[in-house]
């Protein structure tokens, strides 16, 4: 069921019904500008990750500021973006299964699409799908640069896979996918530095080995919001795949800078608006936002600008707030902005973004790729 | 975006695209029959909780077997059910805010609706909403019987609130809502017994105090899948609000019976179908099901009928499987059924149920209330 949006343009923020997903447009646009500014004058491009925002509207705003295109994690996201007019899409993930590959190949008529692989048997499947669709499909080799999830080992294994792609009539070797997921939330800057230094070494030597085999990498992609400055400085990566930067969240807010303070490059721009619906005992209030409204995989949300109120636990449809006797107790009906623990899966709980500026609703953007499960 | 279903009727189960939400129809129907059989011949009715299934199709199957109606947790769920023809709906939760109350009152034209309260100020808001809609609204008092979430204290506070409801021109005192959420997953049967014994005592004395004030309770509701046998036996509850029983999950599978074995009253009937999309290293496989496809708030999923394969971690779109050298490694492209850790929020990740029987897809049911956030 697609509900209508919980707000109308012009409405004051405090009349937005809840739970609702708010974008603070000033902060959001500042984040887009900040990232674009970081890459300006470099030869590295942003391929912003749509796994975070799931929206062609946002994709176009990133592309207008210089992003080369978008990353997605799945075919449903590629479809939502391509059907929304995004022209260059990398599935920064492996896609397995004939039906999924046929849908991906079908997008090649309206967008440049590329996908990753980490398996020789899957190269054959990709070749068959591209052949059946009458296209040439760009395929990147994913290498495991510390994430310990998908990906072949850097070096010889990656080269063998790249050669198999290059030898396939309907495929094109697209380069390397080298994303270190586990490094993104390392808290200390030196930890992130060393993790990405190792990732960069692995990636660089793989690029060189490929070059020795006559295989150039059109794309060397990776990086996330937590580490992108390191990949940017490396001279190895051609594109950065940061997603969360546009919104930020409480978990990224716990990454520290070299002064030991929370990294403040980007601003909190995404909030779940909640209503206090019960105030049953002193020191306790309950909101209408449980984990069906705000993802808790990376920790509880924070109550925006209320460090004196802790969001201590979530059930499916209720969030428990706790506070001390010195705090003015939140009242039933009061609305609070929550900073989600993890922005990506929180976006995936909603069908609409409510864009607010100056205390009023300015726009309503559909979260187009939400609901695309396969 | 509402994707079409990932399957077509008649399709073999192993051709269903993934991630997909499967109902094993034989197990599901057995669960509905088992619960109906437990209540047959008693004077206690099932008011099955739609927070689990979010589907008028399933609601009607429960009602056909004797359920008195449905519970929901929010107005969006009440709308989905009422618009789907369900005639008797209790919002087993507080609803706060004029717009939400107006939507709830608007349903009174097509269904019997009731709601809970735990606050005198909110009684006035409910009265105003009912008056504005020209209806009489049934309102239950929620009492805190150990869940430590919403609800007034049993006894005098509850009586005062009930009197305020009864004195309101456009409200009707509907009874008591006495749900002990924290007892549902107590692992030992004696723990559940004692928790509900205290809950029953609190509820019984509140009912008696109300009767002394001339206030009868049309409904005394509560219970969940973990504890319902206790509320059933109490002689105090008129209706049981179990939801998960129709599907079960891995977390409920860890509740023990008096023999120290997992409670086996109900069968696992809900599965997330996953595809292995990467097999990068010995002892590791990766599925296309992260926590955007299967809720992990109550623990990782189990791999159905594969105790030799452990689902050890989930990122947003990937699930990591680990297994020993003696296990036949899952192959890329292989499909596995996962038993979700927690069924309710897992249902909320999907738009479609794929009903399977005898190895084939029999039906596709929309998860109508998914996407209803406010």
What can you see in these coordinates?
The structure is a homodimer of 374-residue chains. Chain A has 374 residues and is an alpha/beta fold. The first copy, chain A, has two domains: 13-20 and 264-366, Beta Barrel (Lyase, Ornithine Decarboxylase, Chain A, domain 1), CATH 2.40.37.20; 26-247, TIM Barrel. Chain A has helices spanning 25-39, 50-53, 56-64, 75-83, 98-106, 120-133, 156-166, 189-212, 228-233, 343-347; strands spanning 20-24, 45-49, 69-72, 88-94, 112-117, 137-142, 171-178, 219-222, 239-240, 270-278, 284-287, 302-303, 309-314, 319-323, 335-339, 352-357, 360-366. In chain A, strands 1, 10, 11, 12, 13, 14, 15, 16 and 17 form a nine-stranded mixed beta sheet that branches. In chain A, strands 2-3-4-5-6-7-8-9 form an eight-stranded parallel β-barrel, surrounded by six helices. In chain A, strand 13 and strand 14 form a beta hairpin. In chain A, helix 5 packs across helix 6. Chain A starts with 19 loop residues before the first strand and ends in an 8-residue tail after the last strand. The interface between A and B is large, with 66 and 66 residues.
Task: Give a brief outline of the structure.
Two copies of one chain form a homodimer. The first copy, chain A, is α/β, with parallel strands linked by helices and 374 residues long.
End-to-end gap of chain A: 18 Å
Radius of gyration of chain A: 22 Å
**Quick one: CATH class of the largest domain in chain A?**
Alpha Beta
Query: Quick one: which chains have the greatest interface?
Result: A-B, 66 and 66 residues
Q: What's the pLDDT, averaged over the residues of chain A?
A: 98
Order of helices and strands of chain A: EHEHHEHEHEHEHEHEHEEEEEEEHEE
The biggest beta sheet of chain A is recorded as: 9 strands, mixed
How many distinct folded domains of chain A? 2
